[in-house]
Design brief:
single chain; 896 residues; alpha+beta; Alpha-Beta Plaits; Rossmann fold; Immunoglobulin-like; 5 domains; seven-stranded parallel sheet; six-stranded mixed sheet; 53 strands
Length: 896
Amino acid sequence: MALSPIILILTIMDFLYHFSVTLSLSMKMFLSLVYAMIILQAAAQESEPAYRKISPNFISVKNSLNQDSSRPFFVVAKNIEKLKEFLVEKNLFQFIISEYSKSNLLVLTVTVRQIDSILLPSSLVHFIDPIRTPKEEIIIDGFDLSPNKINQVHDRFTLINGKGTVVSVKENKPDSTDIDLKGRFISTSLTSSKSTSHATIMSTIIAGAGNSYFTGKGVSWGAEITSSDFANLLPDANLDYKLYNISVQNHSYGTGIENYYGADAAAYDASTISNPSLIHVFSAGNSGDMASIAGPYAGIDRYANLTGSFKMAKNIITVGGIDPFYNISSMSSRGPTYDGRVRPELVAFGQDGSSGAAALVSGTALLLQQVYKEQNSGLLPSSALIKSVLLNSADDIGAKGIDFQSGFGNLNAYNALVGIINQQYFSGDLSQGLVQEFRLNVPLNVQQLKITICWNDPPAKANDDKSLINDIDIKVIHPQSGNYWHPWVLNKFPHVDSLNQIAVRKKDSVNNIEHITIDNPSSGSYVIEVKGYKISSGVQSYYISYQWNTMNQFEWQFPMSRDNLFGSSNTTIRWASTFTTPSGKLYYSTDLGKSWNLISADVDLKKKNYQWKVPDTFSTVMLQMMIGNQIFISDTSTISSRLKTGVGYNCVDSFLIHWSKASNNDSYIVYQLGKKYLEPINSVNDTGLVLHKSTHASLHYSIGTMINGKPGLKSYTFNYTTQGIGCYIKSYIVDLLNSNEGHIQLELGTTFNVQDILIEKWSRNGFFTIQKIPLTSALRYTFIDNKLLTGGNVYRIRINLINGKKVYSQSETIYYLNGINYLVYPNPAKTDFVIVSKDTDNTELIVYNTTGQKILVKKITSTVQNISVRNLKRGMHFILIKSKEKKVFQGSILIQ
C-alpha cells in the first residue's frame, strides 16, 4: 500500500527538527530514511490513509508541538467500546478524560509520539484532532445591532464608544487573545482560570472591536474589559470594583427558578448602595415557558420564572430576550418578582437568549457613562440615573405599557444616548414627608410624553416578604387644566388572569421605579411632583428622566451610512414613525437617487420593519419612504459581499496577500491590525499586494471594498502566517506509487513573479535537475519518477523568480527499500545508534565486544528504537538480533 504522503512529510520534518542541532546533513537524511520506515509499517496495517485521520489544524501545528508532551485530543472511534479495549491493551485507558458515546468520541490526553506510534496505525481510530480554543475569530451567528438602534449610535456618534470605562464580565474568562479584545483586556486576581466561548461572546457583544469581522463589533468598542469568576455568585469586593475602575458588571448566567429575596439579592442591593455608580446587569434567564415550584407564584406557567434569587435584587437591571421582529422570545424568563415588582425591566435582541440581550444593555450603559463623564469633569453618574434613562427611552412592545414580559420595553440605545447628551433628567434628595417639584415645558405636537423615576433602595433582609424599604411617590400635574397622572401599576395578584391585565394608574408601593406616560399632551408647563411617602431614615436620592416624541415624524434606523447590505439576501429594513397614516410606499436606488425602483406600494408603517430581498450587486444604495406626499430618503449605504482572501507566498523578507475581485469596484482598502484596532495601510486598484516584513510587523490583515468612494464591507481578518503557505509553496508531497515509482505533487500559493519551476534530485555530486515544469496559470503540478534507486531518493523543488532569486523547498525523500528488514545507523556511532525493525514481536538486540563478551542486551519494543552506547568503550562491536529465539540479523558497529 502507498504511504500516506502527508504523514511522511510530517514525520520526516519532526525527526529533522529534533536532531538538526547536532547531526550533519547526511546523517539527517539517513535518519529520515529510518523514521519513514516506521510510517510505512503503520500504513501497511491500516485500512485507510493515515493522513485522512488527522485534521488540517493538527497538520498545521504538529511540527511545532513537543512530541513527548501530553495534551488533550478528540479521538473519534469507529467502535468506541473496541477502542477502549484497545487502549486498555496499550496502557492508555487511564488517560481518557471524558466520553461522548453518542458520537463515538473520547477525549484523550496523549503525546504526539503516542498518536503516531499507537493511535494512527490502528484501524479502530477514525479521526484525531487537538482540543483548542478559538483564537482569532468568533463570528456571532444572528448578529444584528439594529433592533436596539446600536447601529444608529455607531453611525451618528462616532466618538462615543465607551472609551474611559471598564466592564466586568462575571462568568468564566473570555479568550484574552481574541483579536476583538486586543489591547483592552485586563487580567486580575478575580479572573477565572477557565476560558469559555460564552464568556468571549458576551465580552465581544459588549465591547468587541470588530477586528475579526463586522460581527465582532460590540456596543462599546472602546471600553476596557475584565472578568470575574462566577464560581462566587456574590458580588465582588467593593475594593475590587474601585481598584479596577469597574462601572458595569454583566451577569449572563442563572442557577434555576428561585422566587425569594435571598442573601445574594440583598448583597447585590448593598453592592450598588456602596458603589453608587456601579450597574449590575443580569440576564432574565431562558426559562420563560416554565413555572416556579415555590413562592407565591408557584405553578403559574410562563410567569415568575427568573433564574436566580440574586435576580430579585432591586437595584440591578434584568434583561429579557426578543427576536429581530420585536417578538418576545418564548424562552425569555418573565416576572413578576416574588413580591410583585416589574421584571424584566428591559428586553433586547438576544440571538442566544437573554444572555446576549443583557450584554447589549451592559454595552449601552457604558456609552451613557462615557457621555456623562465627559459632561461632568470625569465623574461617573449614579446607576439609578442610567437605569432611569434606559427604561424611560425604551420602545414599548408586546402588551401596551409596562408588563411582566417586556418590562418597560425594548432597549433603544439611540434614544437613551440622546437623553444623556441633552441632559433630559432631574435629580433630588428626599426625607420623610418632603415634597419636591420640577417644571417641564412640553412643546406643540407631542405624541407621547414619558417620565420615569428611579432610586437605589437600601437592601432588605433576606427572605423578607416585601423588599421595598423607601417608598417615593411621583405624580405629573398640568396646572392649566388641573389634570394629573399617577404612575402605571400592574396587578401582581398570583393568578394568570390578574398578571395578564394591562397596567392602571395608581400609587405604587412595590417598585423602586415608577413610570408615567401621557398621550397627546397639551403644550405648556407641567409639574413633576415627588414625595417622600415613606423614608425609613435619612434621605433618599432619586433620578427622573423624561423624553417625548413628535407627531408625523419619520426616521430611518437601518441601514445607516456605515451599514452594509448583502447582495441577494433578505434584509430587515427598520424605521421609526409617528404618522397616523397606516402605510407608505418603499423604493430603492442604486444610482445615488437618479432613478428609483419600487419595493412595495403598501408597507405597514406601524410594524417598523420590512423584509427586503436585496438585489445581487456591488453598489451604493438609498431607500425612500413615501408617506402621502412626503418623501423620506435614507443615508447612502452599500451593497456588497465578503471578499475571499488568500496568501500567495510567505518568504523571509516579504509576503503576498490577494483577494477576489468585486465587480464594478472602484478600489480596495488594505487594513492591518494595530495595537487595538484595524488600521488602513493602503488603497489599491489591484487584487493583490506585496508587503515587506520590515515595515509591516502585523500578522493580521483584512481587505475592504470601496464603492463609489464609500467604504464597504471588510473581509474576515486573517493571520497570513497560518494559511499553510510557505515561500511560494503551499504543499509539496512525495510518495511511493505502485511500489516502484516516485510520485511528486506540488501546489503553489501563486505564480506571481515566477519564471519557471524545476524538480531536482540528489546524487553524490549534489542536486541535479530531472524535470523543468512549463509554467502555466495553474497552481498544482504532478511528476512521476520511474528511475528510483534502492534506498533514499531525495527531491527538492527550485522556483526561479523573474528577479533572479531562487526559492527552494525542503528536501523530501522517497524510500525504495527493496526487501530490507533491519537497519542500524549511524555507523560509526558516538553516543547512540538507532535500530529500525520490521518485526518487533519478541525481538532482542545483543551487543558483543571483540572478545565475544556480551556487553548489552535490549528488548526491541518499537519499530524504531534508540540504543545508548555512552557507557561502552570505543572500538568495533558486533550486533546480533534475535526474533523468537531465532537469529534474524547480524552485523557490526564502530563506536567512536
